[in-house]
Structures
1.
Amino acid sequence: MNEFSYLFLFFLTGSVSLKLWLNARQSRHIMLHRQQVPDDFVGKIDLEAHQKAADYTIAKTNIASISTLISSAILIILTLGGGLNLLLSMSQSYIGSDILAGICLIMSTFILSYFIELPIDIYQTFKIEQKFGFNRTTTGQFIKDQLIQLALMLIIGCPLIYALLWVMGEMGDYWWLYAGVLTVSFTFFMTWLVPTLIAPLFNKFTPLEDELLKNKIQHLFERCGFNSKGIYVMDGSRRSGHGNAYFTGIGNNKRIVFYDTLIESLDADEVEAVLAHELGHFKCKHVRRQMVVSSLVTLAAFALLGWLKQQNWFFDGLAVLQITDASALLLFLLISPIFSTFIHPISSYYQRKFEFEADAFASTMSKPEYLIQALVKLYRENASTLTPDPLYSSFHHSHPPAGVRINHLKSLAKC
């Protein structure tokens, strides 16, 4: 062990401790407010629904704490515990090509981690979601989804890793720049491809058939100057009782998608208001700005990896015996989340700012009251807590707390 080993353990311990402490704060804060519906929601959400949301959130928070501990244990075993050395030795024993052995190392690590954490997903789906009335996934459907995810991991992941390892080995001192551009280009391509090729592997997407709602949405598109490949309804009810809507794709492949559960629970004016909010992200250029920031962060990350790859202390500190392109890339992917934990509030702050801006835009396209009504229904039906701990929320939530967001919309309604 060297100085970096202790730095790694310090940040790992700090990251885990912070997450567990925030989870404890969240559960305690929700329990303290469990017996009374917040004033902003009195008459809109009854006490029984409020308490269900509290219990559901606490159950998810508890399982998140267990998941954090398991993930941390896996990381220690892979690094200081010598797990990566064993996997790398096995890969090189059976595979002569350095690149193919590297792909085997990285993919085997991801797949092993996936199976170790799979019981958490099973418990989440068939225990917690089932208990609170949200799970509609059958055992067969769950297994099918997992097999598709594994297949996609291999089909998409292997070529990307091959390309990255080839660039790292063949493109000289500035390989990190080429690798960054490759990764950003791949991300854009997948964002364009997912709506039409990947997402339909898991769900059925059908064009919106409600003519009244379709006309209302089309008029909204015209007012916003927005072009879309279509308005689709997704059979989310096949797996879950949760409702949602989202904007997906880029370029000429943009889509608006509604969960069928959302269409069933909201009226036409409320659906229009929710869609106006999603279009607000488009009109305020949030998607474009996030892509630019993400691209710059990716390039900076590869530049940092380019420097770390040349430092023996980086590998020695994590107990990795062989310095290879694959081990460097894998180590960087494994430990980066530890060091980034502490800057999550910065990301959350800007994401919330975007949500407020999108709400403000929606209020110019639809009445704020309609969006308030829609959000209240979604909070109730998705069992979203109305009383999150503020500090926990600043680390974990990209959307403003329910009360803050509703009050912001009420202020817009008075303007």
Note: Residues 22 and 392 are 5 Å apart (CA to CA).
2.
Amino acid sequence: MKKPPQNQPAALIPAVIYARYSSSGQREESIEGQLRECHEYAQKNGMTVIGEYIDKALTGRTDKRPDFQRMLRDSERGVFQVVICWKMDRFARNRYDSAINKYKLKKNGVRLAYAKELIPEGPEGIILESVMEGYAEYYSENLSQNVKRGFYDSALELKTLGQRVLGLRKSPDDHWEIDPATAPREPRKFEEYAAGTPAKTIFTQLNDEGYHTSTGSQFNKNSIRRIVQNEKYIGVYEYKDIRVENAIPAIVDKDLFERCQRMLSKHKHSPAAQRDTFFLLTTKLFCGHCGQPMVGDSGTSKTGTTYYYYTCKGHRAHKCNKMRVAQNWLEQLVIDNLLQLINSDEFITEVADRCMEYQAKEQDNSALHALEARQKEIDRSISNVMAAIEAGIITPSTKSRLIELESEKARIERGIAQQLINEPMLEREQIIYFLTSLRNGNTTDNMYLAFLVDTFLNSVYLYDDNKLVMLLNYTGENNKVTLQIAQDAIKSDLSGSAFAPPIPTNGAN
């Protein structure tokens, strides 16, 4: 039996690094330190790092961390054999989550390694690891209680607790003080709101003048309302059950503040505010006559009752004779059809199949295929060199060539592993599970209804006689549907409400 050639590079173990820092007492820089020491550990222990998973400002007390979950999924692909963590508490601070997730990794042939903690092999190592996990969990809970206690103690001293308020700033001893740069601007918001100026007018003017909220974003209706309701502007300090008046330098007087509260109450109980004027089909609904968008509209009767409609833009410009339609009737019709669809197992199966086809089509495998092709070439070349060595042709050139090929093969394998990690695909079962879970949504919740519409509905064309054509985007293509496509659908023996093929029609609505 031939002996293997000497000085052949040892195969490096493919590994990934998982790093995390929480938001309490740690900074972005702690990630850099973890990665550096994990890379050093890999180098010393014959490992090659092919990927990094990083969760920033996320607690270890739960495993609901995006990159952590991605790392667990990728472990099923078999492209790495080790997960390196800086310390045990980076992986988990909950012993039950730790046990379950370590079991998942072990089942996939992946082991855990810690750069700064040596865990011995054997039963003693398992016991030691369990004990250390218990301490990590205790530390996490204790830290949480200490942080909360620290906040409460700071609140008793009327400190700022890291909050930001326009017009106020943190003093050197962590108390609130007037910010001379921004405080003069704040009474204006209160004065305009108390005078009945619409919030939209106020925030539009502030944005146009280049002003920003305390977080650096643009003003909107909600940010204006939060400001005029914030009692800090009249000197009140609040934290949980702590409330101290005149503890903060006041920016507006109490009379102006109370006038704003009365205006808020007036807006809240005004007829226009009694109904949420959310138009579900905005940007989705089109006129079957002229193809123009149909937009939300309202009108008030002689009795003071407000009615809501969808009106064709062409009709508004006197270029189309399509009459407006009641909002409630139309939206309910669309939602009923969408709910009927997602409660159909055949439809869910069809969507899942189309999603899988779309993923396969959209996934760019060109780089992966090129690497795999090169890997086959290298394997053939190595076989040829080994055949020459076995035939007795052993020269400095053959030895050098073999070392070169083995080194390139290792680089190609790392590249293939990286491609597999960088381009994860959803499994068919995951898609089906997600879609079927939508059946349990609250149909009185506008957020849920909007999600249904955005997910499944490409466009709706409304004709006379309540004829409705709904075109779905479940094929994965989200291009704008033209009026001609809708007309072609009607010509294809579709009467009443219809769906894009291959969904069959359900008759007129």
Note: Residues 276-363+425-509 form one domain.
